[in-house]
Amino acid sequence: MMDLNAQYRARLTTPAMAAAMIPDGARVALSLGAGAPPLLLHALADRARAGAARDIRFYYMLCTAIAGRTIFDPQLTDRLIPMSYFHSGVERVLDKGRGGDEFLVDYIPSHFSQIPRSMVEHVGVDTLIATVSPMDDEGFFSLGTNTDYALAVARKPGARIIFEVNRHMPRVRGDCRVPLSDVAALLENDAPLVEVPPAPLSPVDIRIGEIIAGLVDDGACLQMGIGALPDAVCAGLHHHHRLGIHTELMTPGLAELVRRGVADNSAKQTHTGTTIFTFALGDRALYDFIDDNPAAQAFPVEYVNNPAVIARNDRVVSVNATTQVDFHGACNSEFVAGRQFSGTGGQVDFVRGAYMSAEGKSIIACHSTAAGGTISRITPRLSGPVTTGRNDTHLIVTEYGVADMKGKTLSQRADALIAIAHPDFREELYREAHAMRLAGNG
């Protein structure tokens, strides 16, 4: 029997040959964020430009600029077709690419926890492309920063798996390994991983972070979403104790809480002593933190984001951002100016899981205004889809305070939300609420 190194060498190929293994009509799962394989994406784009690839659909979340420079070049999207579960700046640019009069990138609504089943069962993906860590001594590759939906696709019988092996990809512990025997082809690429440094925090971010930090008890188990507001919350937690982490996204802010000893995971009921996540996106220090760290482990998103699994820990605090909250407490967290801006992601998974947790708190935060202070984010009606429904929302936070939706009538909800709206808009919002027979009746 061939030894592991010989099997590895037998699967090594060139980017062009690997791209040629993906047939016309393929349904490809593209690893999100730092897990995208740059060499293979370049080769697929070259193949499409040469007229040798057509009707290849890519299913994915949150792609980075490398996809925009390669497979999602606007000149190629009739052949290499983006099928997004979560938009980033790449899709927003593409949507403007034809004059803004049509949607160039289609969007698949889904909770993050349901995407593996969506890809495997409903979409029928047949191929996985991803960047992975170097093979270990047992013949396994770690999916590194991106276990999420990639592991479910890798375990689909008959799936075509093409990996780009990169020594900069951390070897992560947990349930996130794929055996060499399942891999069809390998490329090697030592380019540094995509890094997304934390965004600068505004005074409003810092104020909201302080308010939310005041809602977090010692011993709580944290989930943080993406963006400046969750980062501000982490910054406000540096004097807490015995915090735990069970989160879809591992961020630099959460890693810093572990380094400081603030989050030691000692009070968790599951995975005690261990930080649990399903994907990581941030800076090199974050990737180094999760590399071969037994106290930071990755698991598939259908496990991490399962509300019943989340609720096994007590005092779960979920923190996510939104773009709009209506008078009923429903949130639009993904639609801006009439277009898909981001996606549902795992917001609802954790909103529900946190509230199911004993003494849990689901927190959704936003600045009180948008567009330079000209638009109130507290609004009579949403201008986009409902991401988190009014029955699910718990605590809504702006820089002006906290509105608790639980146990409130519609009138009480409207009053509570207007009280945390920007003062410049409160009088107008009260008029709207009275016209809707809501405010002032609680």
TrEMBL record:
According to the entry, every stretch annotated as the Acetyl-CoA hydrolase/transferase N-terminal domain falls at 104-189
Look up and give the organism this protein is from: Novosphingobium sediminicola
Gene Ontology BP annotations: acetate metabolic process
Presence of the UniProt keyword Transferase in the record: yes
Question: What are the transmembrane regions?
Answer: none
Keyword annotations:
Transferase
Class of this enzyme: transferase
The entry assigns this protein to a family as follows: Belongs to the acetyl-CoA hydrolase/transferase family.
| Acetyl-CoA hydrolase/transferase C-terminal domain residues | 282-433
Give this protein's Gene Ontology molecular function annotations.
acetate CoA-transferase activity
- UniProt name for this protein: Itaconate CoA-transferase
EC?
2.8.3.-
Query: What PANTHER family would the database entry show?
Result: ACETYL-COA HYDROLASE, ACETYL-COA HYDROLASE-RELATED
- Which Gene3D superfamilies does the record cross-reference, listed alphabetically? 4-hydroxybutyrate coenzyme like domains (3.30.750.70), Acetyl-CoA hydrolase/transferase C-terminal domain (3.40.1080.20), Glutaconate Coenzyme A-transferase (3.40.1080.10)
Question: At the top level of its lineage, which domain of life is listed?
Answer: Bacteria
